[in-house]
Amino acid sequence: KEQKILLDTACKMVRWLSARLGPTVASRYVARNLLRLLTSCYVGPTRQQFTMSSGESPPLSAGNIYQKRPVLGDIVSGPVLSCLLHIAHLYGEPVLTYQYLPYISYLVAPGSTSGPSRLTSRKEAGLLAAVTLTQKIIVYLSDTTLMDILPRISHEVLLPVLSFLTSLVTGFPSGAQARTVLCVKTISLIALICLRIGQEMVQQHLSEPVATFFQVFSQLHELQHQDLKLDAVGRSEGQLPEVAFSDGQQRLVDPRPPGGLQKGVTLEMAYTIYVPFSCLLGDIIRKIVPNHELVGELAGLYLESISPSSRSPASVEPAVPNTGPEWDPQNGGGPRDDSHSGTFGSVLVGNRIQIPDDPQPESPGLLGPVPGAGSGGVSSEEDNALKRELPRSAHGLSGNWLAYWQYEIGVSQQDAHFHFHQIRLQSFPGHSGAVKCVAPLSSEDFFLSGSKDRTVRLWPLYNSGDGTSETAPRLVYTQHRKSVFFVGQLEAPQYVVSCDGAVHVWDPFTGKTLRIMEPWDSRVPLTAVAVMPAPHTSITMASSDSTLRFVDCRKPGLQHEFRLGGGLNPGLVRSLAVSPSGRSVVAGFSSGFMVLLDTRTGLVLRGWPAHEGDILQIKAVEGSVLVSSSSDHSLTVWKELEQKPTHHYKSASDPIHTFDLYGSEVVTGTVANKIGVCSLLEPPSQATTKLSSENFRGTLTSLALLPTKRHLLLGSDNGVIRLLA
């Protein structure tokens, strides 16, 4: 019971995460790992045993194609499949065709060695996982998509699987059982596709896989007739005997591979295959499958062996098409050679179905009661649906989102660089004045923006539309009296801090103001604010007289007060940055001077003239690195206590007034709407892109980067924020 609760919780969490992380991250990190997990569900012989659910007749007695003969692995893989399908529900059909299908064809691709040698148990499990997942996918594909990718499914999935199944040399590590399970699953899959696309299409597109499948029986039949006797000599040299088959080809045969073909493909298998396909394909089976009579005979032999008394061999032939009555309402309407169309033993007269008085007696146990047959469906359970609609989700991928997502799932997970492609993903209109600051919340599903129009807005970052869609804010905070120049999130208590000269602390869930801190002297306004990282709950504020004050949002009054000027007159504090550990604060002044302060002791560790112009922005990075930009067109990287800068970038035309960090890279923005990417490591490198007017209108005022999603939020002077990738 505990394990079930744990599994449920894990499933819910994965579903919640895949919705929250957005399509690219969910596909790269969640779906990829779920697909890998799927294979593990089928590894080992125990996972490949059929489960006998209660009250079921023994396997293969009902001549039903869709025999759901679940193996233990299917039960284990249930939650994984449901999570995978949940991602497809969220982001639409492309997930099935562009992410799951290529992975399936990778799973079933023949090994690198030239001949199909012995399978490993992982590869064998992969084959089972691939067939199971393909079956799930096909149910959810729309008709047009299915027809489009049918050749791919045939060549990349069915034929490779069949080449393993029907190879006379390949041995399955888990023995004949694995081969039988794979066989049953593949039959079920091909039958499902046949039912979805109808007889004519089967003849056009699927004749090759179906014929391959039936061909095995001929080969085996001949093998038994030629009765291979191997002399010890030939065997000891490790040579495989060659056998001439009736089609004139010589083939290598391994007579005793573990789990070899002879064991896996028995009379029982012949029966399992022949019945469904003869019902499904009707007369077409004669055109597609050259050796259908042989398989029919074998099926007859099997029927005889399981119920010798009730049937004489003569009665087998007409009975065979009858064995899957529920399949015929779909496509058994055409006239057959025998008078029975196989539909519940009824006879077709013209366009009228006439029910004979004396329906054929069924041998008990051969055909169990057929659930839901009357509806012409497969069965009433939803598991057996032939086709199900993927619900239209608000987050379905299309247009630019789709193009960007396709690119992202192809990028290797080791790639640590930020690539800017200028793909427009979403717009956030609403501010009536220039956007002065944007700050994503740490979870990256919402972001905050502050503007000249004296409001702060909270916006959702969930994907929607095709790149042209506009998103409305979730909440608008309107208590400010002047233009808002700073907004940020205090991570520990989850409050929002915004500043217009006075600092407002408010709750992003309700929009309620929790506290307003006015400047201590109205002639000395606050010029810069920064929030301390979790677990600290303090806000640090600099006023125009170069005083740094710390306030804890949990209690009234001041925590600390430090003078930064120290006799010099370095000008106004333009920017504050707190190190990720919260141990030091750096202040940048309008004269280009920078001061580093230890937050625990209040001592000034260092003060130095960093730039010739006004300092525009400072950020502090892990490993006590500082990045500062100035109006003298430079961007400089410093180590906290080293005298010389480690890197120095000059921008040609305009100063870098806004930048953000991604790993070991700095993404910069200038007033000329140029986005640059500079490296913090050796050797220095710099690349810039000009924003095109269709993707971004107005002048760039603020920029923020979403590190996990690798998107950029760009605020402009016309009040619109855009999300670009």
From TrEMBL:
InterPro entries given in the database record: WD40/YVTN_repeat-like_dom_sf, WD40_repeat_dom_sf, WD40_rpt, WDR81
Cellular component terms (Gene Ontology): autophagosome membrane; cytosol; early endosome membrane; late endosome membrane; lysosomal membrane; mitochondrion
Residues in WD repeats: 428-459
Localization per record: Cytoplasm, Cytosol; Cytoplasmic vesicle, Autophagosome membrane; Early endosome membrane; Late endosome membrane
Keyword Mitochondrion listed: yes
Location of region: Disordered: 310-384
Primary residence: cytoplasm
GO molecular function: phosphatidylinositol 3-kinase regulator activity
Biased composition (Low complexity): 310-321
Keywords: Cytoplasm, Cytoplasmic vesicle, Endosome, Lysosome, Membrane, Mitochondrion, Repeat, Transit peptide, WD repeat
PROSITE patterns, alphabetized: WD_REPEATS_2, WD_REPEATS_REGION
Any GO BP: aggrephagy
Record keyword Mitochondrion present: yes
Membrane topology: Peripheral membrane protein
Top-level taxonomic group: Eukaryota
Protein family: Belongs to the WD repeat WDR81 family.
Protein name: WD repeat-containing protein 81
Organism, scientific name: Neovison vison (American mink)
Upper taxonomic lineage: Eukaryota, Metazoa, Chordata, Craniata, Vertebrata
